[in-house]
Amino acid sequence: MLSSSRFHVKQLAKKGQDNVLILGAAGRDFHDAMSYWFLLPNTKVKAITAQQIPGINKRIFPPELCRNDENDNLYPHGVQIHPEEELESLISGMQVTTCALAYSDLKFETVQSLAARVNAAGAKFVQLPPILTMLESTKPVIAVCASRTGVGKSQTTRYIAKYLKSKGLKVVAVRHPMPYDKDLLSQRCQRYETYQDMDKYNCTIEEREEYDRHIASGTLLFAGVDYEMILREAEKEADVIIWDGGNNDSPFYKPDLLITLVDSLRPLDETGYYPGETNVRMADLIVIAKTNQLDSLQTAVQHEQKLREITKPDIPILFGASIVTPEARDPATNEALGEEEATAMVKGKRVLVIDDGPTLTHGGMAYGAGYVLAKNLGAKEIVDPRPIAKGTLKATFNKFTHLKSVIPAMGYGAEQVHDLRETIEAADCDTIVLGTPFDINRVMKLDKPLVIARYELSIPDHEVVLQEAINSVLDEFGLSFAAA
Question: How does DSSP classify residue 368?
């Protein structure tokens, strides 16, 4: 017997009215709403749900971003954001007919479980193909995406930006959204050129991790919520736009070259996580990352053979290395130290390792670049952080039980930053090894020596192939005149 809520869903479907619930995590959900769902006839977005990121629910997606001038003012009060845990009650209470998945790095079984919950509650479950929400640019777009979180997108983006700038081109990077502040309208279109801009926009640790190296290398960066506005602003300042992807999500902009990274340390994940396999199948070029960390390069060769079962025919598949080096400053004078001096701060010492948060949590990695550096430099001991974890970090370790040797740099809000600082200060260690790309001393002053793991992409045997792929895009747009 149909429940009354399911009966209403059936009646609405007959009338052609679609009530949509978008399942998200403060990223693609907003973009899909603005570029597709808010503009679709006979459709009403009833709510958005939030998952993965702490503290992003219980917000309002503002009416100013709801395309009200194009949909008859359907959203005068905006759209409420709810926890995903309320999924079934939202479907019932709001007479939802369709649930649209709009976040990333999910196991296929998790996706199917969500579909089962939605279907059992009486609604359709949909996944939009990326092409439906890709915006077209007047400038060449090179997109960097991945099969999983933490594969090495940022270092690849930096490599491409450096190469393009060496040809005299103006480069703008556009980062996948990370709008974690309560006021979404204030994050509509963000332009980052200096470190002060990160303070201006009240950036979380997670945002700073992604933005820091772009700023340090002199690459202009945009991010925010309204990716149509962001694109038009970026076009004013760019010869070439690089889409710097987040998690394993697909690009928001239609790429002229789509580069997808897969992880040599997680060789089966591209066929087990959504939407990573989509990115692999769409790719124009693939980089198998971190091959220098394999015991044998033959493993990467076998990985390549397996990948070709799902890629476009004959696309280039390159082997990439992640070169990790130490960077440190003298604790007394703040002067930059040489690599040998930085190495001495780790070798034979008891170290506490802090690595990139998303890579370790929903990315599923047990360690990151900081751990690799500590091992490579001969640390005497890597301190187990679990017994000293404070507050929300203790809950993080309880949730992600694969983490044993490193602290995830969780800092989505003031409480997490406080708990991270308290945990670090409780550690009995000689040195902190930081595997996140930014200097954590910018947001908290630590009383222990700090060594930062810097990592860059190297493609020793295939560099020319990657550069030729980039050059072909430049040629299409008449940019080959730029001086090398």
Answer: -
Q: How far apart are CA 268 and CA 275, in angstroms?
A: 14
Regarding pTM above 0.90, the answer is yes
pLDDT tens sequence across 152-168? 999 999 999 999 999 99
Confidence of residue 483 (pLDDT cuts 50, 70, 90): very low
Does residue 114 contact residue 24 with C-beta atoms inside 8 Å? no
3-state secondary structure of 236: helix
How far, in Å, are 36, 352, 389, 407 from residue 394 at the CA level? 40, 16, 5, 10
User: Which residues are CB-contacts of 227 (< 8 A; sequence separation ≥ 6)?
Assistant: 31, 34, 35, 135, 174, 177, 252, 253
pLDDT in tens, 247-266: 999 999 999 999 999 999 99
Residue 73 has pLDDT above 90, yes or no: yes
Going by their DSSP bridges, the two strands 220-224 and 450-458 should be labelled as unpaired
Q: Are strands 98-102 and 189-192 parallel, antiparallel or unpaired?
A: unpaired
d(CA 116, CA 113): 5
Give the closest residue to 213 by CA, choosing from 356, 333, 103: 356
Write the pLDDT tens digit of every residue in 361-375: 888 889 999 999 999
To the nearest whole number, what is the mean pLDDT of the chain?
93
3-state secondary structure 430-448: CEEEECCCCCHHHCCCCCC
User: Is the model's pLDDT at 81 over the cut of 60?
Assistant: yes
In the DSSP assignment, the letter for residue 160 is H
Q: Where are the alpha helices (DSSP H) in 238-324?
A: 276-282, 298-307
Helices 28-35 and 227-237: angle between axes, nearest 10 degrees: 90
DSSP for 49-118, please give it.
EE-SSTT--S-EE-GGGTTGGGTTSS-TT-EEEEEGGGHHHHHHHTT--EEEEE---EEHHHHHHHHHHH
Q: What is the largest CA-CA distance in the chain?
A: 75
Please state, in angstroms and rounded to a whole number, the distance separating the CA atoms of residues 206 and 104.
Answer: 16
Strand partners, 329: 336
Q: Please check whether residue 30 is in contact with residue 22, taking contact to mean a CB–CB distance below 8 angstroms.
A: no
CA separation, residue 20 to residues 275, 283, 424 (Å) = 21, 30, 44
Q: What is the pLDDT of residues 113-155, one digit of tens each?
A: 999 999 999 999 999 999 999 999 999 999 999 999 999 999 9
Q: Which residues does residue 328 pair with via DSSP β-bridges, in sequence order?
A: 451
